Each structure stands twice: as C-alpha cells, then as structure tokens.
Amino acid sequence: MMRVLLCIVVAGLSAFGISVLPAAGADTGSVNLSIAVASPCILIAPDNVAFDPVTFSPTEFSPTKSLARHSHQVQNCSQKSEPLFAKATDATDGSGSTGTTWLLVHPQTIGVDRYALQLESLPLSKTDQAVASGPLLAGEARPFDLTLWMPTVGSSGSGRTMSMSLTYTATF
User: Residue 49 to residues 32, 121, 164: CA-CA distances in angstroms?
Assistant: First the structure.
C-alpha cells in the first residue's frame, strides 16, 4: 500500500514537471566552522600583601590576629563564570632547612609554631577549597580580606619576617 502511494506521489509530481532529484546543474556551498576553546583565567592584584606587625598570641584561646582588609582582588579574565579555589602554605623565614617554620592549621588549633590564615570566612588549608563567596562571573573583580592568627608565645621567629603563599585556582 505504501509503495503504491509513493509511486502515485512521484508520478504526480513528475506530471507537473517537479523533480524529486537534484537538477543536473545544481550548485553547492559550504560553511567553514571554528570554535575558540575557553580557558580559565584570573588576574590577582596586588600579588604581594604584608600584614601589620603583631605579637605572638598569649594563648590559643585569646589569639592575636592581623587583618588585611581588601588586601587584594581576584579578577576573572575569561568569558565564562569560574569556580574559585584557594589554598595556603606553611610560613617560613626563608633561611632554608635551619630556619623557622610555622605550620598552617585551622584557627581553632593555633599553638606553638602553628598559625592560621583565613580568606573571608574560609579557614585555609594546604589543599584547594572552594571559596565561600561563590564563582567569579565573567569579567568580575572581587576584593578579599585576609586574617592571620599568630602562633602562641613560645614560638620561634620573634623579630623575623615570615612568608607564606596563597594560591588561587580557577576552573570550569
């Protein structure tokens, strides 16, 4: 039944001079396609932050803190929203293996040679963690506060400049 109907439709179209096949003189055209692959991109400014000098914490229950308000900003330089992650390092005085080192810990566990660093409300650790304020929108620049909890009295490093790093990672 279907074949008969198809033959009738083709015969009917042919009777009116309408072809179901491409014409002998048909032309073709093409479209070249491309895509730019987006890449995560962040800019950080400034790339160096110095906390004000402070004393060691008297005890772990009454920490001495140093706040660096709006100390730096992170800008998304891609065309897409980017989740942002952060991590930090232990602090050292730069003297090599014989120098002073403070271990990076959670603010509730500061102690002798143990300090804490917090980004906004996020206590930093040595592994990437999602920044609590959410992803950066395309082109967005966001300022950040940092808080440093000093190690307790009895720690090494008195009179020295201790250095640590804060690393951001942006992904899609």
Answer: 49, 18, 10
Residue type, 3: R
pTM: 0.78
Q: Map out the domains of the chain with their CATH numbers.
A: 42-170 (2.60.40)
Q: Where are the alpha helices (DSSP H) in 29-111?
A: none
Angle at 163 between CA 108 and CA 113, to 5 degrees: 40
CA distances from 34 to 38, 40, 55, 63, 151 (A): 13, 20, 59, 57, 55
Digit-by-digit pLDDT tens for the chain (172 residues) are: 555 444 444 555 555 555 555 567 889 999 999 998 889 999 999 999 999 999 999 999 999 999 998 889 999 999 999 999 999 999 999 887 778 999 999 999 999 999 999 999 999 999 999 997 789 999 999 999 999 999 999 999 999 999 999 999 999 8
With beta carbons less than 8 A apart as the criterion, state whether 107 and 118 touch: yes
Q: What angle do CA 16, 19, 24 make, to 5 degrees?
A: 130
Residues 75 and 161 sit within 8 Å (Cβ to Cβ): no
Interior angle at CA 157, CA 152 and CA 158, nearest 5: 80
